[in-house]
Design a protein that fits this description.
With 535 residues, the protein is of the alpha+beta class. The protein is 48% helix and 12% strand. Strands 3, 4, 5, 7, 8 and 11 form a six-stranded mixed β-sheet that branches. It has a three-stranded antiparallel β-sheet with strand order 6-10-9, with no helix packed on it. Strands 1-2 form a two-stranded antiparallel ribbon. Bound molecules: flavin-adenine dinucleotide (FAD). Residues 165-274 form the Acyl-CoA oxidase/dehydrogenase middle domain.
Length: 535
């Protein structure tokens, strides 16, 4: 039965038993994969439901079915840069109009956020990053770091009337956030901030949505109050372009970063401000505020800690990136495994028949570990995604979440590099495993590789992020931490038994015992402690 949703979307009634739903689990067409599918020792539908859950699968398919039917969601091979940008922008607006997963859905079923994110990233990274920036990172930073003074902007975002960007990086400084040089000087007489870029090296750059489309940006700048007193890096809501014409305001020089290795639907941009005035109310004041005379107050005295608190959105971003890498790697592994089962090279002597290349041990050795990593990433991303949503929900109710917040920050700082590097290496192996045909643009592997590549760099460059996770572990040891108290998510609570674990010896005698997940976990815990103690 077909019904029209409030958004004019054709919606077919859900089939009660998911296993009978042919739109979700269609009959396979016959072909070279048939033989392998028949040989499977497990039911793939059941596996899918166990791994993802019915509600995740249903939401994903609802989004995909809409995309399949929508004329603006059809692929356009050979599009130039302008057209790619135009379509990513259009598609993200269309997605917003559909409200597949809006504020009400988030409040009612917060854990489906991950499913929605993975559904849209499966289609196209550029559209989804644009959508995530404007409906996720921008408003959530505004709400979590700002105050009620900025409520009118939150309402405009909810109506899709303004589009946001997040501007931290400068030409000369990325990882070293405290080194940023954009200035925000408070003018007592007019109760305004003057945002100024001292030179080109202090221009904000790489900022997604800034090149052509955003109307506002959250800009991080060094705050100076009367007597040129420096109060550290603070975030400000800065109007960039007119909401109707999209022309930049006087005092704002904004431009496009140009064509990139991947993610070309996103208009990454740069901006310089020339003595540009914004109202006092536009300071995001949760971590520090000023009164009309410019007297600064903050509950957090340490400047580094203050910056850490105001960069909280990046921590959430890392959790989301981990979920995206699962999408990229699972697509690549699916393409390469199916190809390996269809592609035939060489065969028995004196026979014209040839073997599918998946029969070669070396091909299995190259692909199957990445398939296993995909499953591990699935489990890990579901877990951290759920913990992160729980944390946000507890934050809404006023519960103290600082300890869990610190743990998620540390774990996501380790998980994001591990996941994005695993996807980077896995996608490349899949490309090579498909031989020359994998190098064709239409294989999709090049786009996956290039789009995932940026995940290794933004929201914390991988090599420096991993140091943050290590620093956390080292500081726990140095401070003789109570490992249970500092680890409400139980990621490091095993360290309380470190002496016993370190003395223990492996008791496994058979391959089955070695592969027992509990024994593997014990071995991993032992190894972690061994590395940790050696420092
Ligand atoms: C596609 C894309 C989109 C982006 N979108 C945005 C956005 O929307 N908003 C935004 O503000 N930024 C954005 N960025 C910028 C991104 O966040 C930065 O590129 C990133 O933080 C790294 O900073 P950097 O480029 O200055 O590298 P650098 O900090 O200069 O690092 C260069 C190298 O030095 C190493 N290094 C640096 N410090 C140390 C250290 N202490 N110890 C050891 N090694 C070190 C790094 O590991 C790296 O290999 C985006 C970037 C890309 C590629």
């Amino acid at each position: 039965m077909v019904a029209l949703s409030t958004n004019g979307r054709r919606e077919e009634k859900a089939v009660a038993n998911i296993y009978d739903d042919k739109r979700i689990f269609p009959d396979f067409r016959s072909g070279p994969l048939e033989e392998y599918r028949e040989r499977a020792s497990f039911c793939y539908k059941r596996m899918n439901v166990v791994l993802e859950g019915e509600d995740h699968i249903r939401l994903k398919h609802k989004v995909w079915q809409w995309m399949e039917q929508h004329p603006d969601y059809q692929r356009e091979p050979g599009s130039d840069l302008e057209r790619t940008r135009e379509m990513a922008n259009k598609r993200q607006h269309l997605l917003w109009e559909q409200q597949f997963y809006g504020v009400n859905e988030y409040l009612g079923t917060p854990h489906l956020l991950l499913a929605f994110g993975q559904a849209i990233f499966s289609y196209d990274f550029s559209t989804s990053v644009k959508f995530g920036l404007s409906t996720g990172m921008f408003p959530s930073t505004l709400v979590s770091n700002g105050s009620g003074r900025l409520g009118k902007y939150v309402a405009k975002i909810a109506d899709n009337r303004i589009l946001g960007a997040y501007a931290l990086t400068e030409i000369s400084h990325g990882t070293n956030a405290l080194g940023m040089r954009t200035r925000a000087t408070y003018d007592v007489k007019r109760e305004e901030f003057i945002i100024h870029t001292p030179d080109f090296e202090a221009a904000k750059c790489w900022v997604g949505n800034l090149g052509k489309t955003c109307t506002h940006a959250i800009v991080y700048a060094q705050l100076y109050v009367p007597d040129d007193k420096h109060q550290g890096l603070q975030a400000f809501l800065v109007p960039i372009r007119d909401e109707r014409t999209l022309l930049p305001f006087p005092g704002v020089t904004v431009g496009d970063m140009g064509e990139k290795i991947g993610l070309n639907g996103i208009d990454n941009g740069f901006v310089m401000f020339n003595q540009y005035r914004i109202p006092k109310a536009n300071l995001l004041s949760k971590t520090g505020d000023i009164d009309a005379q410019g007297n600064y107050t903050s509950k957090i005295k340490d400047e580094r800690k203050r910056l850490g608190a105001s960069l909280g959105a990046l921590s959430v971003g890392r959790v989301n990136i981990t979920a995206i890498t699962y999408v990229a790697l699972s697509k690549a592994v699916t393409i390469a495994t199916r190809y390996a089962a269809s592609r035939r090279q060489f065969g028995p002597t004196n026979s014209p028949a040839e073997w599918p290349v998946i029969e070669y041990q070396s091909q299995q050795y190259r692909l199957i570990p990445h398939l296993a990593t995909t499953i591990a990433l699935r489990v890990a991303t579901l877990w951290i995604g759920k913990e992160n949503v729980d944390l946000t929900m507890k934050g809404f109710t006023g519960e103290d979440t600082s300890q869990a917040g610190m743990e998620i920050h540390a774990i996501s700082s380790a998980l994001k590099p591990v996941a994005t590097w695993a996807a980077r290496d896995g996608i490349q192996e899949c490309r090579e495993a498909c031989g020359g045909h994998g190098y064709l643009k239409s294989s999709g592997l090049g786009e996956l590789r290039n789009d995932n590549d940026a995940n290794c760099t933004y929201e914390g460059e991988n090599n420096t992020l991993i140091q943050q996770a290590s620093n956390w572990l080292i500081s726990l040891r140095r401070n003789n931490a109570d490992f249970v108290a500092v680890s409400p998510l139980e990621t490091v609570s095993f360290l309380k038994d470190m002496d016993t674990i370190l003395q223990s010896k492996g008791q496994e005698h058979t391959p089955a015992q070695v592969l027992d997940p509990l024994n593997l976990l014990n071995a991993l815990n032992w190894l972690t402690i061994w590395h940790w103690i050696r420092r």
